[in-house]
Design brief:
Elements: E1 4-12, E2 23-32, E3 35-43, H1 52-58, H2 62-65, H3 71-82, E4 86-89, H4 92-105, E5 115-117, H5 118-125, H6 134-140, H7 151-171, H8 174-184, H9 191-199, E6 213-216, E7 219-222, H10 243-250, H11 261-275, E8 279-284, H12 290-305, E9 309-313, H13 316-333, E10 340-342, H14 352-358, H15 366-378, H16 394-403, H17 421-430, E11 434-438, H18 439-447, E12 458-461, H19 467-474, E13 477-480, H20 481-491, H21 499-511, H22 521-547, E14 558-562, H23 570-602, H24 609-636, E15 643-649, E16 658-662, H25 667-675, E17 680-685, H26 695-701, E18 708-713, H27 719-722, E19 723-728, H28 739-757, E20 761-765, H29 768-781, E21 788-791, H30 799-808, E22 812-817, E23 833-836, H31 847-858, H32 863-880, E24 891-895, H33 899-902, H34 906-911, E25 917-921, H35 923-933
Parallel strand pairs: 1-4, 4-5, 8-17, 8-18, 9-11, 9-12, 10-11, 12-17, 19-24, 19-25, 20-22, 20-23, 21-22, 23-24
Antiparallel strand pairs: 1-2, 2-3, 6-7, 13-16, 14-15, 15-16
Helix pairs in contact: 5-7, 5-15, 8-9, 8-15, 11-12, 12-13, 15-16, 18-19, 20-22, 21-24, 22-23, 23-24, 28-29, 28-35, 31-32
Length: 934
C-alpha cells in the first residue's frame, strides 16, 4: 500500500466547533509505503478556559496551554502534513469538522482530500470484535495505549491500528473486495477510493484464493474444517470407577495435576445417575471443576449407550467455553473421540440465499450498508453462520431480520441448501455425542413450539438455577411499545418503501389490466394507519392505568404495577376495549396480506428470485403478525391464570412501557414435559441449596424429592484464609430513615472503604434508584476523583463491556444491579473488594412475588420461609461468588445490610456460603482491617 496516510487525533474543549469549542492538542502520525515516517504533536492555546471535565479526561489544564501556540501558528505545518494524503482518524467526522473550522478561521482553504475512519474500518474488518473504542481495539491487538485521551498517544495507536487494518484488507479474497467496492460508496469515508486503488493493479492478473476460502454462488466463504484425525488408541469405554484411573486420564492434560476429591465425586454422581436413569441435582462450589465434572462421565456414558446427551446452558459464554475449550481438552484425555455440536434456534443462523439477494438491492441506509460489508467479511471467517458471533448495531439487527434463516414457504433454490448454516448445525447435532444448546431451545423443544433437538433421553442442565426463571419467561408473554412499533414499521405505510410498498409493486406488475378481488391499497394503507394509532392509544392507556395505581411517592424511574383484566374501573375497561380493537385490526391486516399473497401465487406467473425472496419476507411478517394477535388475545381477551403486570419508566412513560404475563409456577409443566419425559436429567450450578437443603429448587422445578438424587460438593478453596466479611454497624437501617438520608450515609462509607481498598471494588445494589442516587452523590463529593467510577445504566456499555473496562483500570469502582449479581468473572487482583448494599430480597409488591406468596398462603404455607428467603439466599450466593474465582484470590466482602446479623433468618445467609471470617463494627475500625488485609 503506497498511499500516504496522515492519522490525526485532537483533544478539544467540547464537541461542537460551531459553538466555539477549540482544539487544545493536535497530533499527527504520517504513514508512507506502509511505514510510520513522521510524528508531530503540539499543545494549542484555545484562548479560553478548559472545562473541568475535559481537564479530568485529558489531563490537560489551563497552565499547560498558556504558553502554547494558537492554532494559526501551527496551521502551515498541518497543511504540509496533509498534502496529498488520506486524512485518517478514529471517528473521522469529529476530528475533520474541528480541523476544517480552525483552518478556515486561520484563512486557509481547509482539507478536501480523501478521508478514512478507523471506526468504520474496524467494524467492517473485525465484525466479531467485542467493541470498537480505541482502547478496546488496542487491547485486542495487544498494542500499548498508556495515555488514552491524549492526542499523541491516541494518534500513535490509531496509526498502528491502521497498518493492521490495511494488511487485513490485503489478505481478504479479491472476490470479497470487489463486493465491498459498490457498498463502500454509502460510507462516511472514502474506503471505496482506497479499494479501487488496491484492485486496479490486480486487474487482469490470476486470482489465487486462500486455501481456507471457496467461492459459492458468487460469495467467498470459509471452507468447513474437516474433523480432526484422532489417533485410534484404545477403544476402551469403561468408565474409570476408581480414583487412580481418573488420575491417570487427567494426567494427560495437566502438567501438575492435583487430585480434586469434589470433582471425582461429581463425576461418579453424574455417571451413576445416567446409569440408573435417575434425575440428579448437584451443587458444585467454585473451583470444583464443574464442566469437566459432568463432561467426562457424559462422554463415557454416551459412548457406551450410543445415545446423545444434551447439555443446556443459560449464557452464550459458557456454550462457547464448552465447545471451544472444554471438549477439545476432553478429547486429548480420552481413549476415544467425542463429537460435539452446538445447536440454537433457526433465527440465529444466516440465510445465504436471502443475504445474496440483498446484495442486489439499492438505496440502502448507512446501517444496512455497513452490516452487509460486515457480513461479507465475516463469511470468510465463520463456519457456523451464527449471529451471536457478530457485533451488530441496532440498525444491523433490523437488517438481520431480513436475512436470518426461516422456513421457506415459496419456491427456493435448492442449490443453496448445500451451504445452509442451520441445516449444517442440525446435521452436526444429529450425529453428535454431546449436543450443546441453551435453555430457551431446550424449553422450545420441550413444548413443541420450535425447531426440535434430535431425540434424546439424557440431559445436563448447567447454570441450572436459571431453569425455573427461563421457563417462567418462555411460557409467558410480553408486549412492549418500541418492539411492536418497529415490527409494524417493517410493513410500513404505502409511501414508506417498506414491505407494503414492495408487495404492491409485485401485485401491480402481475395485475396489468386484471381485476383483483382484494382490499384496495388505500384501504390497506388506512388499516395500517388505524393500527399504529390504536397501538399508541393502547400504550397510553396502559400508562394511565399504571399511574392511577401508583402512590405519589412511587413515581420514580421504573415501577411494576399489577394488571387485573376484570377491573371494572374506567381505566381497566379502556385497556380491554383497546386490546380488542387491536386484535380485530391485526386480524384484518393479516387477512388482507394473506389474500394478496394467495392472489400472487394463484396467477401462476414466473417470479424472479428477488420477488420470491420478498414474498418470503412478507410471509415471515405474516406469521409474526399472527403470533402478535395471539399474544394480545391471550393477555387481554381470554381466560388465563398468568400473573400480569405493567412496567413503566417515568422518564419516558410510553416508549419504555412493557406489558408482561407469566405463570406463577412452572413446576407442573417442567415435571410433565421435561423430567417425566426423559430418563435422566442432571441439574447443576454453584447455587442450588439453601441451608444445605435442595428443598426450594426441588419444589420450583417440580421434582419428586424421593425419586431425585441430590449431591452437595463444597468449594475446595480456603475461604477462611481468603476472605474477610465485614459488616458496618454504624449505617442506619433503611426503614428507619428516608432513602436520601440512607444514601448519604452509604456514600460516605463507600468513599472510606474505596480509599482503603484503593479501588478494584464492585458494589452490588438491588435497586436502580438507590444505585443512581449513590453514584451521583459520590461523583458530586469529589472525594473519589482519582478513581474511575462506572455505573450500570449510567456509564455506556453492556455489563460485559463495563466489566472489561473495570479490569483495565487499577483504581476502578463499579456499581451494578441485576445482571452483575452473577455471570461476571473477575479473577485475581482485578477485584479485591465486593460490597453488597442490601440483602437481595424481592419487593413483596412485585407482581410475581405477590402471586407466588398468595399460592403458598392458600395451601397454608409461609411465603417468607418458603419463597422470599430462599430466593434471596440463592441470589446472595451468586453475588458472594463474584469475589473468589481461583485458589489464589483474596479479598474483602462488605455487607451493608445489618439484617444479616440482627435477624433470626440472617443465619440462613451465612449457612449457605462457605465458612468465612466475619468482623463487625463501626466503619472506621473496618477500614483499618481493609488496610491490613489488602
Amino acid at each position: 500500500m503506497f498511499n500516504k496516510f496522515v492519522v490525526i487525533d485532537l483533544e478539544t474543549t467540547g464537541n461542537i466547533p460551531k459553538k466555539g469549542d477549540k482544539i487544545i492538542q493536535f497530533a499527527a502520525v504520517v504513514i508512507e509505503n506502509g511505514m510510520i515516517t513522521e510524528q508531530y504533536s503540539s499543545l494549542i492555546n484555545p484562548q479560553k478556559a478548559i472545562p473541568v471535565f475535559i481537564e479530568e479526561l485529558t489531563g490537560i489544564n489551563d497552565e499547560m496551554v498558556i504558553n502554547a501556540p494558537i492554532f494559526s501558528e501551527i496551521a502551515p505545518k498541518v497543511i504540509s502534513l496533509l498534502d496529498g494524503a488520506y486524512f485518517v482518524a478514529h471517528n473521522v467526522l469529529f476530528d475533520l469538522s474541528f480541523l476544517q473550522e480552525e483552518l478556515i478561521n486561520a484563512n486557509y482553504e481547509g482539507f478536501y482530500g480523501p478521508v478514512l475512519d478507523t471506526v468504520e474500518l474496524a467494524r467492517i474488518l473485525y465484525p466479531t470484535a467485542d467493541g470498537y473504542k480505541l482502547s478496546d481495539l488496542a487491547e485486542q491487538e495487544n498494542l500499548r495505549h498508556d495515555r488514552p485521551h491524549q492526542a499523541d498517544s491516541d494518534a500513535e495507536v490509531t496509526a498502528e491500528l491502521l497498518l493492521i487494518f490495511l494488511n487485513r484488507l490485503m489478505t481478504l479474497p479479491r472476490h470479497t473486495l470487489k463486493q465491498l467496492v459498490p457498498l463502500a460508496g454509502g460510507l462516511k469515508s472514502d474506503l471505496q477510493q482506497l479499494l479501487d486503488e488496491m484492485l486496479d493493479p490486480l486487474e487482469g492478473t490470476e486470482i489465487t484464493l486462500p486455501q481456507h476460502i471457496e467461492i459459492f454462488k458468487g460469495i467467498a466463504l470459509k471452507k468447513t474444517s474437516p474433523q480432526p484425525d484422532f489417533p485410534v488408541a484404545s477403544r476402551n469405554t469403561s468408565y474409570p470407577e476408581n480414583d487412580e484411573d481418573k488420575i491417570n486420564i487427567l494426567h494427560k492434560g495437566f502438567k501438575s495435576f492435583e487430585k480434586r476429591i469434589g470433582q471425582f465425586q461429581m463425576m461418579d454422581a453424574v455417571y451413576n445417575a445416567f446409569l440408573t436413569d435417575r434425575h440428579l441435582l448437584i451443587e458444585a462450589g467454585t473451583g470444583v471443576g464443574k464442566s469437566l465434572g459432568y463432561l467426562l462421565p457424559a462422554a463415557y456414558f454416551s459412548q457406551q449407550c450410543k445415545r446423545p446427551i444434551v447439555i443446556s446452558t443459560f449464557t452464550i459464554p459458557l456454550q462457547e467455553q464448552l465447545l471451544r475449550k472444554e471438549i477439545p481438552f476432553l478429547n486429548k484425555l480420552l481413549p476415544f473421540n467425542i463429537q460435539a455440536a452446538l445447536l440454537k434456534g433457526r433465527s440465529h443462523y444466516l440465510n445465504l440465499e436471502k443475504f445474496h439477494q440483498t446484495l442486489l438491492d439499492e438505496n440502502d441506509n448507512y446501517d444496512t450498508t455497513l452490516t452487509k460489508m460486515q457480513i461479507l467479511v465475516w463469511l470468510t471467517e465463520t463456519e457456523t453462520g451464527d449471529k451471536d458471533e457478530l457485533n451488530l448495531s441496532s440498525g444491523g439487527q433490523l437488517f438481520w431480520d431480513k436475512v436470518r434463516n426461516g422456513q421457506a414457504v415459496y419456491e427456493t433454490n435448492s442449490d443453496w441448501l448445500e451451504k445452509d448454516f442451520f441445516l449444517k448445525a442440525k446435521r452436526d447435532a444429529a450425529t453428535a455425542d454431546l449436543i450443546i444448546t441453551n435453555h430457551s431451545l431446550l424449553l422450545s423443544d420441550m413444548t413443541g413450539k420450535g425447531p426440535s433437538l434430535p431425540r434424546y433421553d439424557y440431559a445436563i442442565i448447567d447454570e441450572g438455577h436459571h431453569l425455573e426463571k427461563s421457563a417462567t419467561q418462555f411460557l409467558g408473554a410480553s408486549l412492549d411499545y418500541l418492539s411492536i412499533r418497529l415490527f409494524i414499521g417493517k410493513f410500513g405505510t404505502y409511501d414508506q418503501s417498506q414491505l407494503f410498498y414492495q408487495m404492491e409493486e409485485i401485485v401491480n406488475r402481475l395485475a396489468a389490466d386484471k381485476e383483483i378481488a382484494v382490499v384496495p391499497p388505500f384501504e390497506l394503507n388506512q388499516l395500517v394507519l388505524d393500527l399504529m394509532y390504536e397501538i399508541d392509544e393502547f400504550f397510553k392507556l396502559l400508562v394511565l392505568y399504571a399511574n392511577t395505581r401508583l402512590a405519589a411517592g412511587q413515581r420514580l424511574y421504573r415501577a411494576k404495577v399489577p394488571y387485573f383484566r376484570f377491573n371494572n374501573e374506567k381505566e381497566g375497561k379502556a385497556v380491554s376495549h383497546s386490546a380488542e380493537r387491536i386484535a380485530f385490526l391485526l386480524k384484518d391486516l393479516e387477512q388482507a396480506i394473506k389474500e394478496r399473497l394467495e392472489w400472487i401465487i394463484s396467477e401462476g406467473m414466473v417470479l424472479t428470485s428477488t420477488q420470491l425472496n420478498k414474498l418470503e419476507e412478507i410471509q415471515l411478517f405474516l406469521t409474526e403478525l399472527a403470533d402478535l394477535r395471539e399474544t394480545v388475545v391471550a393477555c387481554f381477551l381470554s381466560e388465563s391464570n398468568h400473573v400480569k403486570w405493567i412496567e413503566i419508566d417515568s422518564r419516558s412513560p410510553q416508549n419504555i412501557t412493557t406489558f408482561i404475563a407469566q405463570p406463577a409456577t412452572v413446576a407442573d409443566k417442567l415435571k410433565e414435559n421435561l423430567f417425566n419425559a426423559k430418563k435422566a436429567v442432571i441439574v447443576t450450578s454453584a447455587s442450588l441449596t439453601v441451608n444445605h437443603s435442595f428443598q426450594y429448587i426441588l419444589k420450583g422445578l417440580g421434582l419428586d424429592p424421593v425419586l431425585t438424587e441430590t449431591v452437595l460438593i463444597p468449594s475446595p478453596f480456603d475461604y477462611k484464609k481468603q476472605v474477610q466479611l465485614l459488616i458496618p454497624e454504624d449505617l442506619p437501617e433503611i426503614n428507619t430513615v428516608t432513602l436520601d438520608e440512607f444514601v448519604i450515609s452509604l456514600a460516605e462509607q463507600i468513599i472510606s472503604i474505596a480509599e482503603a481498598a484503593r479501588g478494584r471494588m464492585l458494589i452490588l445494589f438491588t435497586s436502580y434508584d438507590m444505585l443512581k442516587k449513590t453514584y451521583e452523590l459520590i461523583k458530586e463529593s469529589g472525594f473519589l476523583d482519582d478513581y474511575v467510577l462506572m455505573a450500570q445504566g449510567i456509564s455506556s456499555g453492556s455489563p460485559a463491556r463495563l466489566t472489561r473496562n473495570f479490569k483495565r483500570y487499577d483504581k476502578a469502582i463499579l456499581l451494578g444491579t441485576n445482571s452483575f449479581w452473577e455471570g461476571i468473572d473477575i479473577p485475581g487482583e482485578d477485584l479485591s473488594c465486593l460490597c453488597i448494599v442490601r440483602l437481595p430480597f424481592s419487593s413483596p409488591e412485585e407482581p410475581l412475588t405477590e402471586a407466588k406468596s398468595k399460592l403458598i398462603l392458600e395451601r397454608g404455607g409461609n411465603p417468607f420461609i418458603e419463597y422470599a428467603l430462599p430466593e434471596a439466599v440463592l441470589r446472595f450466593k451468586q453475588g458472594f461468588g463474584r469475589l473468589i474465582r481461583t485458589e489464589n484470590d483474596k479479598g474483602i466482602i462488605v455487607v451493608f445490610d445489618k439484617r444479616i446479623i440482627t435477624t433470626k433468618y440472617g443465619n440462613s445467609f451465612f449457612e449457605s456460603i462457605p465458612p468465612v471470617s466475619v468482623r463487625k463494627g463501626p466503619v472506621n475500625e473496618l477500614v483499618q482491617i481493609i488496610h491490613t488485609w489488602i
